[in-house]
Structure formats: structure tokens, C-alpha cells
Amino acid sequence: MRDRPNTALLEWAAILTVLAALGVLILQIVAHSRVRAQLQAGMIIADIPVGGLTAEEAGVLLSRVYAAPVELHYREEVFLLDPTAISFRLDLESMLSRADTFRSETSFWRGFWEYLWNRPGQLVSVPIEVEYSSVQLEAYLENVAVRYDAPPTAPIGDPDSLGFVAGLPGYTLDLDSSMAVIDMALRVPSNRRVALTISEGVTIAPTLETVGDLVNNYIAEVGFDGVLSLVVVDLETGEESAINPDVAYAGMSIMKIPILVSTYRAWSIEPFEHTLKVISEMIELSGNVSANILLWDLGEEDRLLGAGIVTADMLALGLNNTFMAGYYDQETPPAVIETAANLREDINTAPDPYMQTTPADIAALLTMLYQCASNGGGAFEVVFPDKLTPSECTLMLDILKRNRLGSLLEAGVAEGTPVAHKHGFGEGDTIGDAGVVFSPGNDYVIAIYTWHPVALEWVAVSPIIANVSRIVYNYFNPPQ
Description:
The protein is of the alpha+beta class. The protein has a domain at about 210-475: 3-Layer(aba) Sandwich (Beta-lactamase). Helix content is about 45%, strand content about 15%. It contains 15 helices and 20 strands. The strands form 7 sheets. It has a 5-stranded antiparallel sheet with strand order 14-13-20-19-18, sandwiched between helices. Strands 2-1-6 form a 3-stranded mixed sheet, covered by helices on one side. A 3-stranded mixed sheet has the order 4-3-11, with helices on one face. The longest helix has 29 residues, at about 10-35. The chain is rod-shaped. The termini are far apart. The mean pLDDT is about 85.
């Protein structure tokens, strides 16, 4: 009979092996439980890897990273925005809660199996949740704008070139765009640098007010100690600029413009050839006899009555400072006519009692004439309906264009520029010129009058009027 083998040792070895395996399993379960209490591997919150950290440790890390200031660049200036200055706050509770949801959605034993095989955790990303005060950020940026914005500077006149020096375009902070890029920088953990959005300004163009300033500076520089008046009308926009516009001046030959308008207004038939010749002589040759002939026709063989008709026409058009109390070279004393302009006490040019006007009135009349020629509208159509046609107004401007003096207004414009104008010389103390300039840049009305209490010397004053004309021309026609 054979002896049975002794298996006790094997049995105990097996038991010990099982117990050891159970021990290892229990240790692994305990270890996995500890890992499971932490944020899973592959967990990213607000773009920061936090796998293997506890919720408390992750919160500390997130707070520290997002507390870093945002570096702001305003052109060459650099400064730091402290998030606390705009009440910046991470919503840690919400983000960590969402992260825990991802952990709890995976079963314990499945996670344990992955743990045993040392497999990496599933990549999970929790987006940032943040809040801050947009009101405080806007106020912060407004303060930045106050300190660093450079508004455009206005152009200035150059008395040497009789032109204009362009201002600087400047630059300003674009508030809305800058807030948007800062918002993005606040939501990332690194590279928290922002180039604030800067709007480059546009160069401010000269205005008619700039023209007036340059003229005043020029007059002061040349030392003219008389009275100078200037009225400029932009015929495209209607904008005006004026220096002493409502001063009463002697009418001189410039009053031949009102005579021209009244003559055409009075006609009901096409003028005779000899009448057109008289008109041409009145404007081109500045003939006083020709002007008196037209007054004689207007007054039905009474020059004084004709002068009264011109005055009435001007009053009807609202030109209350323009009158003819007599005709040219009249020897008998005229009736005294008082106007707001000749009753001024601050400026008195001792205007001719026979005929007077103001730069403002003549500029207004020329503007009406241009409007009539352009579209048949304007004051002429309202005050004198069906009396002055666009073709007649165009013809009047063409007649005024034939007054070629070569100086005064004409000397201030580019060669070949049409100028429909009439000039005038007083009794040694007044010189003026008024007309419509048809320039490449824009059409405009310009009226310039000068007066001196002692005497005006042509050689001294004519260049001044020409240069003032050049300043205005350069405004409408800036060099390219």
C-alpha cells in the first residue's frame, strides 16, 4: 500500500498566495480610492492641468494663476491691470463642481480597472467661468484715454506761403474693441498681454474760420493800419467766413453790379445791340457814363429815379445797407439815407453819401446771381419771379468775367481761373473788389474792401488784396 502525499504545505502556500493577492487587491483598491478622491488624470480646468490635485489644491492653483496682472500696451506705453481693480473673480465652486461631475460619472470599478492597467485618464476640459465689473473696466480705460489719447490738432495758416499747414491726425483709444481684447486676456492663464486698440485720427482740414485767422495774421504782419473787410461764401456748402462784413463803404464802381442786375430785371424784351454795348462798357471799362445811361433807361429818362429803382430792388432782396442816392458824378447834393451800417459808431469809413454798400450785401447779391445761373432758384426767383432767367444770370456772370484787370482778386488765383468780378476805387481812401471765382477746387464768392483814414496807395494796397485773394484761393485749392 502506497503512502498519500503530504499537501499541507501546498495548501498553506495557496492560502497565503490568495491572501497576498487579496491584500494587494485591497491595497490597490485603497490606493485607487485615494486617487479617485483627487481630480482625475487628464483633467483641465480653465486651460490649467489639474489632474491628481485635490479640489482645494486646484482652487489655490487657479486663483494664483488668474490673479496675475494683464499687461496693457498703449502704443509705446506699458502698464499693468490688476484684476482686483475690476472686481475679477473666478467661479471656482461652479468649475470644480463640473469637474467632480466628470469624476462621478465614471463607475468606481471601471476606474479601478483603468487604474490597475495604468491607463491615462480621459482628457476632460472644464471651460473658465469668470465675472468682473465691465463698468469698472470701462472707467479704467476711460482714465487711460484721458492720459494717453492725442486728439488731432487743427491746421494753421502760414503767413509766409499764404497757405495752410496741416495739423497732426492724432489717435484715440477704441474703448469697445479694447474691452473685448482685455476680456480675452483675462480668460487665459498665460501670455496675458494686450495691445489696446488705437484709432488713428484723420487730419482736420482747414475751415473758413481758419481762413479768417490767417487773413487777420497776414494783415497784422504787413502792418496794414486801415480797415479791411472780407466776406467769403462757399457756393457748394453755403458756409461763410467774414471779417468786418457789415461796414458801410463807398459804392464806387462795385455798385455797377446792382445796376447790372436791376437792368436785366427790368427788361421784358431782348436788349438792343447798343444797350449790350453800354453794359459791356460799364463793366469792362468801368464807364461811369455807361452806368448813368442804364440808370437813365431804368428811370425812363430820369437818372435819379433810376438810382432809386436800383435801391428799391436791393431792399426787396434784403440788402438793406445798399443804396444809390444819386448817380455817378452827380453835382447836386444827394438825399441823406441812413442805414444800420452807416450809423455804426465803432467803424466809420466816411462812405460816399451818393452810393453805399457793405461787403456782406455785395457778397449776398453775387451769391444770388450764381444761384440763379446754376438752377434758376434762390432769392431772384422768390422776389422777382419770371423776371430773371438762368440764361440771363449766366450772361451777367459772363459779362463780369470780361472785366480783366490783372490785379486785386485776379492776381490771387491761378492763371486761367475765371473771375466774374467788379472792382472799385474811392476818393483816394477806398479800394475794393468783389466777384465769383470759378476755381478747380470749388466756386466761391469773395468780396474784399479796404479803407484808410488818410490815403490808400495803390502800390501798397493792391498786393494786400491780391494776397488775401490768394489765401482764399489756396483754401479752396490746396496743393496736391
